[in-house]
């Protein structure tokens, strides 16, 4: 089953944005996943230029994305953040970052599905108990 993810780049450096978009255009369609660039709205992943972003841009990135890849020269972020892409990234590193983001997105999706299933089972079980044990008489729910 193919999965589709949206991505946006937040950088003020035109060369870096052009490189990232070029890699996405060339390698964004993998056997199991399609990555598509989205300029506006909520996205699955943002690649954020952490060296030049303002606090408001960081806040925006957290609000509109499920995962953030920090694009930076600061190697200390590697130990602090789950997804870091070191500048000057090459195609292989960009694709590795996208693969890591995909793994995290799949884990989030699985966790959400598990929670939804548990909530449905709990709600259904509670309602059936109320039907079966309603008051002084026993009722049957088919």
Model description:
This protein is of the alpha/beta class and 142 residues long. It has a single domain (3-114), classed as 3-Layer(aba) Sandwich (Rossmann fold). The protein has four helices and five strands, in the order E-H-E-E-H-E-H-E-H.
Give keywords.
Rossmann fold, five-stranded parallel β-sheet, 4 helices, 5 strands, 49% helix, 22% strand, globular
Q: What is this structure, in a nutshell?
A:
With 142 residues, this protein is an alpha/beta fold.
Secondary-structure-based class equals: alpha/beta
Distance between the termini: 35 Å
CATH superfamily: Response regulator
Mean pLDDT: 81
How many structural domains does the protein architecture include? Answer: 1
How many H/I helical runs?
4
- How many runs of DSSP E, i.e. beta strands? 5
Task: Report helical residue fraction.
Answer: 40-55%
CATH topology: Rossmann fold
Strand content: 15-25%
Radius of gyration: 22 Å
Query: Shape, please?
Result: globular
What's the helix-strand series? EHEEHEHEH
- Architecture per CATH nomenclature, i.e. the level-2 architecture: 3-Layer(aba) Sandwich
Largest beta sheet, briefly? 5 strands, parallel
Task: Give the strand order, joined by hyphens, for the main sheet.
Answer: 2-1-3-4-5
- CATH C-level label: Alpha Beta
Q: Which spans have pLDDT < 50 for at least 5 consecutive residues?
A: 138-142
């Amino acid at each position: 089953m193919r999965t589709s993810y949206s991505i946006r780049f937040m950088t003020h450096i035109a060369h870096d944005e052009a490189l990232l978009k070029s890699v996405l255009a060339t390698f964004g369609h993998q056997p199991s996943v399609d990555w598509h660039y989205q300029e506006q709205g909520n996205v699955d992943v943002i690649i954020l230029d952490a060296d030049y972003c303002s606090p408001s841009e960081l806040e925006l990135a957290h609000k509109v994305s499920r995962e953030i890849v920090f694009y930076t020269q600061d190697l200390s972020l590697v130990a602090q953040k789950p997804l870091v892409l070191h500048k000057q990234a090459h195609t292989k590193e960009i694709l590795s970052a996208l693969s890591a983001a995909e793994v995290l997105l799949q884990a989030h999706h699985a966790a959400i599905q598990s929670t939804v299933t548990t909530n449905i089972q709990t709600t259904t079980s509670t309602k059936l108990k109320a039907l079966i044990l309603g008051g002084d008489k026993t009722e049957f729910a088919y």
